[in-house]
């Protein structure tokens, strides 16, 4: 999910020190750089700069994080530009630190070069490169066999899907939670063959794609799950289309971006027209689950301007059954 409400709860200094030591990172260089679902820090050691994450093990267990990192290792070894995870001193990728009730899961990644994409980066070349990046990932993941018994969850098993009604205010549980539940039921009836379904990023929006010259690198695989490839594409298009703090982007610009994005994707991986036709429903799924996620985070943090604007704008769009993409097709 995007960086909306910033989780500013301070990390336990003792746990942070242990986490830094586990990955050989210098505490003197450590600085907090934000986070939506995790506390995220940057720190250095002799061989470079790294990103350290402290997360809730109730949301992502240590085994789930290990499974994410194993997949990342496979992807980077097979030509996908992504920020690789690094192993801790004990040889594992992730660890559980802290006492009962205050435990956190920790992991670290190499810091990728570049800056997150912005709306000003929506050039034809970037659209093509973005599509190729996802296409290369999907081509690789089609033949991925996990090296251990650890597994990532399926998309519908995520808490924002399974507990949608409980996460929403009472007056939204039927009109919005009910819509999400019905859409989940519809999508779960779709085929899950290897050419269309597998372990995917599920969150390749602007903030999780870094641009360094002409190269794009994918980061933040925290939400990776088994889902349809077309959903991974629809998520990108959804975030390109929405602009809750502004007037929105011209449909013609969005159409051109979509065409170049899908053309770039097709250069790396073939996806049938049958699945491309499902992207409107996958975009609507992201619109609904992002609404639910913001409501969840807003229970513990004051939502920022982006999140407040999203809730205000998309509540009416959801209740009015408006399409997530601003033009047909």
Structural write-up:
The chain has 329 residues and is α+β, with helices and mostly antiparallel strands. The chain folds into 2 domains: 13-110, 2-Layer Sandwich (Phosphorylase Kinase, domain 1), CATH 3.30.200.20; 115-319, Alpha-Beta Complex (Aminoglycoside 3'-phosphotransferase, Chain: A, domain 2), CATH 3.90.1200.10. It is 42% helix and 15% strand. The protein contains 11 helices and 11 strands. The chain has helices at residues 13-22, 62-77, 124-141, 159-162, 164-167, 173-188, 229-241, 251-268, 273-276, 279-298, 305-319; strands at residues 31-34, 38-45, 48-55, 85-86, 95-97, 104-110, 115-116, 197-200, 209-212, 215-218, 225-228. The strands form 3 sheets. Strands 1, 2, 3, 4, 5 and 6 form a 6-stranded antiparallel sheet that branches. The protein has a 3-stranded antiparallel sheet with strand order 7-9-10, with helices on one face. A hairpin with a 3-residue loop joins strand 1 (31-34) and strand 2. Helix 10 crosses helix 11. The longest helix is centred in the C-terminal third of the chain and has 20 residues, at 279-298. The radius of gyration is 19 Å and the shape is globular. Mean pLDDT is 92; it is low at 3-8.
